[in-house]
Structures are given as C-alpha cells and as structure tokens.
Amino acid sequence: MSEKLALITGASSGIGAETARQLAAKGHRCLLLARDRQRLETVAEEIRKTGGRADVYPVDLADDRAVQRAADALLEEAGVPDLVINNAGAGRWRPFLETSTEEAVKMIAVPYFASVYLTRALLPAMVDRGSGRLAFVASPGAYFAWPNASTYIAARHAVKGFAEALRTELKPQGIGVSLIVLGTVESAYWEHNPGSRENLPETDERLLPTLSLAEAAEAIVEGVEAGKPVIVKPALYKALFLLNAIAPGLVASQIRKASKKAWKRA
C-alpha cells in the first residue's frame, strides 16, 4: 500500500490510536477523529515525534451535523481519504432488563449511526475519484450472541449488515469494503465499561487468546493493506462462525455454558 490518506475514528485511545500509529509508521498521513481534542493531540504528537504525519478533527460522531462539518473541513484541508476505518464503538455488556432505552440508543449511535454519518459524508468524493476502502471494526457479536450483551450485540449486527450491503453496492464504483472482527482485546474498554468483563464468556486462551492492542491494530492494518473483505482475529473464530451457520443450536448451548462459567468465576 503506497502512501495514502487514512482516516481513523475512535483514534484518541485504544485500538484506534494504535492503528493510527502503525499506519503512520508505514508512511501514511493519518486523520484522527474522536471527541476529545486533547487526547487526539497527544496521539498526533506521538506520531509526529516518530516522523509521521497526523491531523486531528475533534467531533462527536453521534451528531450527524457535526460529522458533516468535520468531513467538509478535512476534505478541504487534507483531501479525499483513501482509507476510512470506522473503529469508534461504545456500550456496556449488560442484561437487557438492566439496560435503559437511553443506553441502548447510545450503543446503536456509536458504532452504527456514526459509521453511517461518516460514510455518507465522505463517500460521494470517494466515488467521484473512483477508489478507496471503507473498513468497519466489529466483534464476534456480529455473528453470534451470548447472554447479557443484547443491545451491544444488536449494534454489531447492524455494523456487519451495513458493511456487507455497502460491499455489494460499491464494488462497481471502485470502493472496497472490509469488515474487521476482533476477539477479546486487552484495552481500556473494560475500565470504561464496568461490569462488561463479567459477562465475557469463558474461553480457552490457548485457542482464543486475548489480543494486545498492537496485535489488534496489526490485524487491521495488514487486512486493509491486502484488501481483504473480511478480517478475523484470532483466526479460529472463522471456524466458529461457520459452525454457527450450520448448527446454531449447538453453538448457542456451548456459549451459554461458557457464560455460566464466567458468572461463577466472577
């Protein structure tokens, strides 16, 4: 992948920030989007100190008008992105009856509506140019469900459906679409969403290891560089997704058992 203009949402910390660092290390100019200007500037300064290029665009991605204003500004100042990574996400893993409707709305607003707003704002310019790639970061919840994370999982299913529909629609326009599915990642997410880890189904670390931020970002960068339509890390999840398509009842029963073990352990 030659030098490109890469836009990353949720870039103020975690997977987004590390993905930006890795892309910048490969020589790409990065556009960093998130709400917190100060944290964005910190990431951008880290990139600049290592010789990379980064610009920040603070924006509330759940606000469609704010997203349009940010998109207009970056298109004028930086140009049309070659790569758009929709990474921003939110939401606690909680039982449905303990999840308020307000919290459910926030979980669908980011990541799903955030990616819709940004894609709608940038896509016309990408189509006019006839090239580019959209990437959407999701989780295994986009393919199967586990107890006590219903609204979180629904939002990830929405992201998956959006990515797959866009891939079909945009292929004739020269725009590629990647869906990125990452397993458990050791990040600040668990601190920012207390109670979520307790609802994480128990898995064998030898088969489905927890990813570091660097491993998660590397999977994203390598996958989009290769133009892969679907990027899954750890790879064993591919087999689980296939098994779920063939025998959903079996997978569901095993996930319930793994969830019960996690509750007892917590």
Automatic annotation (TrEMBL):
Matches recorded under Gene3D superfamilies: NAD(P)-binding Rossmann-like Domain
PANTHER family: DEHYDROGENASE/REDUCTASE SDR FAMILY MEMBER 7B (PTHR44196), DEHYDROGENASE_REDUCTASE SDR FAMILY MEMBER 7B (PTHR44196:SF1)
Organism, as annotated: Methyloligella halotolerans
GO CC entries: membrane
Top-level division of the source organism's lineage: Bacteria
A GO term for molecular function: oxidoreductase activity
Keyword Oxidoreductase tagged: yes
Family, similarity comment: Belongs to the short-chain dehydrogenases/reductases (SDR) family.
Chain ranges of the Ketoreductase domain: 4-188
Pfam families in alphabetical order: adh_short (PF00106)
Organism taxonomic ancestry: Bacteria, Pseudomonadati, Pseudomonadota, Alphaproteobacteria, Hyphomicrobiales
EC number(s) recorded for this UniProt protein: 1.2.1.-
InterPro entries: KR_dom, NAD(P)-bd_dom_sf, SDR_fam
Official protein name in the record: Fatty acyl-CoA reductase
Alphabetized UniProt keyword annotations: Oxidoreductase
First-level EC class: oxidoreductase
